[in-house]
Design brief:
about 45% helix, 4-stranded parallel β-sheet, alpha/beta, 11 helices
């Protein structure tokens, strides 16, 4: 079923046209069978304080696909733009399904920022429905690490933001996108990006020092998902995982056996999982290998504001602290 939007627009004053467009697109999405996912559907995030005030009416609205890059973008935008995440804290990003309310939010946005590297394959449906809203891929310019196992072998590992060195590229891509969108505030975006990049560099240096105190033969990062390939590359760690990319299914016996063998052979004392993944399989690895379960890492999502990883920089510090403390415990 298809509607002729132009017929509506000809009969309405200009201020009513956007409402009609959003309504028609929403109806089309519903008719096409898109329904909220029971596992990761979410309501709209609470807007930034004062987003409905008169002073904010002229600000650009930047929508991001998940919370990590929303935090990055907010640090660059400062108070000159409104930044919102499409998905809420704690959402699983890989298998997310856009909802009708997501479509309405995308229609109102001036810019959408995404990660790319096949992380948000679901986003293309959204872009097709809002062709007039530009979107920018923040991993542009990054040399990807390839996945070496499972069905995704040969594909780029999408978790490039986990490397602080890569994060500097993300920040510069955000800066350029905002300057292109809103040149009137270019000076602010350039200044904020420079300051935020310096903070990332400082965290990078702290992380290197933290890893350096761990004995070389213990520098293993055992997780549920292969989300740390960029981290292990940057900090001289070795990586082991149950599956290459998040899966809603239980780990297979072969995947469990592989990791259990690695842990036993290398006498790895501790294993971990991610905050958006069921940790049952990794706890089984711990039991059968004699290792401890050391807690969770944050990767695809920040925690809520009152949680342990409410910002990207806190996420990096928490992960390395969790790893090093786990490896150092007797």
């Amino acid at each position: 079923m298809r509607f002729n939007i132009n017929n509506f627009q000809m009969q309405l004053p200009q201020h009513g046209q956007k409402l009609v467009v959003a309504s028609v697109l929403l109806l089309e999405l519903c008719l096409s069978g898109c329904s909220p996912s029971t596992s990761n559907s979410q309501s709209q995030l609470t807007p930034n304080p004062g987003t409905t005030s008169t002073s904010n009416l002229d600000k650009k609205v930047v929508l991001t696909t998940f919370t990590v890059i929303a935090d990055m973008a907010q640090n660059v935008a400062g108070d000159k733009a409104i930044v919102e995440s499409l998905t809420k804290p704690g959402a699983e990003i890989h298998g997310y399904e856009p909802t009708p309310s997501d479509l309405v939010r995308a229609q109102k946005a001036d810019l959408i920022l995404n990660n790319g590297l096949n992380l948000e394959r679901w986003a293309q449906k959204l872009y097709n429905s809002v062709p007039n809203v530009p979107h920018v891929t923040l991993s542009e310019g990054i040399k990807p690490v390839e996945i070496t196992e499972d069905a995704y072998k040969g594909k780029p590992n999408p978790h490039a933001w986990m490397s602080p060195q890569n994060a500097l590229i993300y920040v510069d891509n955000i800066r350029k996108a905002l300057v292109n969108l809103d040149s009137a505030n270019a000076e602010t975006y350039n200044t904020n990006a420079k300051a935020y990049s310096q903070k990332i560099k400082e965290v990078d240096e702290k992380l290197r020092k933290s890893v350096s105190v761990v004995p070389a033969d213990k520098r293993y990062m055992v997780s549920c998902e292969g989300a740390f390939s960029y981290v292990t590359r940057d900090y001289g760690l070795k990586e082991a995982y149950l599956w290459a990319v998040n899966s809603e299914q239980q780990a297979t016996p072969k995947q469990l056996e592989k990791v259990i063998d690695i842990v036993k052979k290398n006498k790895i004392p501790v294993v971990f999982c991610e905050s958006t993944v069921n940790d049952g399989a990794q706890r089984q690895v711990a039991r059968e290998s004699g290792a401890r379960f050391g807690g969770v890492f944050y990767v695809d999502s920040l925690s809520p504001a009152n949680g342990p990883a409410p910002t990207y920089l806190k996420l990096l510090e928490l992960n390395i602290n969790t790893l090093t403390q786990g490896l150092e415990e007797k």
